[in-house]
Amino acid sequence: MIAAAAENNALGKDNQLLWHLPDDFKRFKAITSGHSIIMGRKTFESFPKPLPNRFHIIITRDRSYTTEHEACKVVHSLEDALSLVKNEKEAYVIGGGEIYTQALPIVDVIELTRVHKAYEADTYFPEIDLKKWKLRNEEFHPADEKHKVSFSYLTYERH
């Protein structure tokens, strides 16, 4: 699972991110490129076009939803999405909030960018239970001319 969430677990509002962190975008691209990415329909629709060098698995309850993009497949449950990646070494759940909540009991690694500010949002990342997860790596990134807010890259592994 890979996400960027504020101190209060805010992810976004009105299907938009609440911050602009170019280094986090670069990290997301580096980690997910060459892999399948699993997301909800609204997350997919927030992209101007499918992300390059990734296979998109879009989860929706809408049985009539389709996409013409060849790098995409529409499914109707997290279980269906996971069955498509069962033979892959790595695949990433990339959001949104409901998909993160469904996937949290299943995933074994969380790549989280913790944005060091609280935001008003309509979508939130689930609470990480530190009894079940161990922080394996932490890297702080201060605010600078390209990043208005500081953030940390956190890698959690399931106990």
From TrEMBL:
It is an enzyme of class 1 (oxidoreductase). GO terms for biological process: dihydrofolate metabolic process; folic acid metabolic process; one-carbon metabolic process; tetrahydrofolate biosynthetic process. It catalyses: (6S)-5,6,7,8-tetrahydrofolate + NADP(+) = 7,8-dihydrofolate + NADPH + H(+). GO terms for molecular function: dihydrofolate reductase activity; NADP+ binding. Pathway: Cofactor biosynthesis; tetrahydrofolate biosynthesis; 5,6,7,8-tetrahydrofolate from 7,8-dihydrofolate: step 1/1. Belongs to the dihydrofolate reductase family. This is Dihydrofolate reductase. It comes from Muriicola soli.
